[in-house]
Amino acid sequence: MNSDKMLTRIGGLLRQAESTDNQHEGEAFMAAAQRLATAASIDLAVARAHTAGKEKRATPTQRLISIGEPGKKGLRTYAQLFLVIAAANDVECDIAQTSAIVYAYGFASDIDVCEALYTSLLIQMVRASDAYIKSGDYRSETTVRTRVEKRGRRRVVTEVQRPVAGVTARLNFQLAYAARIGRRLAESRSEAAEQAVSVPESSAQTALALRDKQLELRDYYRENSQARGTWRGARAAAGHASRARRAGDRAARTARLTDTPELSVARKQLPR
User: pTM (2 decimals)?
Assistant: First the structure.
C-alpha cells in the first residue's frame, strides 16, 4: 500500500474514532489507527492533516444574478428586493448601474437560498402590486411634484399637487414591500443566530464558526470585487405615495418566506 493510501486509511480511522459517541468503539478505531501508523512509521498528526486536506471544504464563490434586460422598467425595485434578501443571508453584492445584473459573493448554499427566496418573493411582489394597481386605491391620493421655471434671469421653483400616477404607485408599493421583507428576514436571521449559540456546550464553537465565516467572506469580497462608484439604489423619483407604501408594507407582512410551488416557475416568465 502506497503512502497516500496509508495516510487516507489511517486518517479515516482517526475520524471514526473522534466522531463516535461509543467509548469502546472509539478506542478500537484509535488502536487500529495507531497500529497502522506504527507499522508504517507515520505520525498520527500527519495522517489527520492529510485527511482534512483532502476533504472538500466549502469556500466563498461569485455568481452572476440576472435581474432583467437593461432598460426595462422596475429593475431597481427588483434589484433592491434581491439586495435585502442577500443582506440577511451572508451574501455580499455588487450591482451594475443599469440594475440589470447583481454580482453575488458568498458560499454557494447561501446564494442558493437567496435565489430561491428572490424567485418566490418577486412573484409575490409583482402579483400583489398588480392587484393594488387594479384596485385603483392610489387614485384617491395626490403627490407633490417640484416644477422649475425660468422667468427672465430667475429660476422659480414651485411645488404642484398632482394625482398619483400608476407607475408612481407601483414603485412606492414595491419599495415598501422590499423594505418590509428586509426587516422580516433580518429578524429571522437574528433569532436563528441566537438559537444557534444558546446551547451552552456548543455556543462558543458555534459563535467562532459564524465569525470565521464572516471574516472569510469579507476577505473574499475585498479580493474579488471590482465595483467602482455607488449604486443609486431604488427610489421613488416620481413622487411619494403614502397609500401605496402602506399597501406594499401590508402585503410584505404576509408574504411567504418559505419554499412554495411557485419556485418552479421560471423567472424569465416574470415581467421585466
Answer: 0.70
